[in-house]
Amino acid sequence: MNSYLGSCLCGTAKFEVQGEFESFYLCHCRHCQKDTGSAHAANLFSQSAKLTWLAGSDSVTTFTLAGTRHSKSFCRCCGSALPCTHMPGLLVVPAGCLDTEVSIKPTAHLFTASKAIWDKELEALPEFEGPPK
């Protein structure tokens, strides 16, 4: 059984996920764009993995957009996205909050009809290992 560690940006909330992720979706819906401030959300999904809060569980809050299934859990101190268990039997883990690397590759892009107009041919852009000089 795999074990993954994760945390928020400020380190207040720390967690462990034991088990496997069944899917890894890049969601381009407008809700996820607003949530992340970026082109898409990158979330891992599991119906069987177990989430254990190692620290800071009292700093985790969840926002659910009225009239939708869209929810986001985050740290009250720094705002970082954190695992969400709002749907019974489903664990949703933002890929960027994991401190342990995952070997699963993204399964699919979702809601591509809402894809940001600037989210095209990004692999052609220059790359820097740090800030541009």
UniProtKB/TrEMBL annotation:
List the Gene3D superfamilies.
Answer: glutathione-dependent formaldehyde- activating enzyme (gfa) (3.90.1590.10)
Where does the CENP-V/GFA domain lie? 4-119
For this protein, the record's PANTHER family field holds: CENP-V_GFA DOMAIN-CONTAINING PROTEIN-RELATED, GFA DOMAIN-CONTAINING PROTEIN
Q: What is this protein called?
A: Aldehyde-activating protein
Please tell me the species this chain comes from: Pseudohongiella spirulinae
Which family does the record claim for this protein? Belongs to the Gfa family.
Gene Ontology MF: a single term: carbon-sulfur lyase activity
Q: What keywords are annotated for this sequence in UniProt?
A: Lyase, Metal-binding, Zinc
The record, for Pfam families, names: GFA (PF04828)
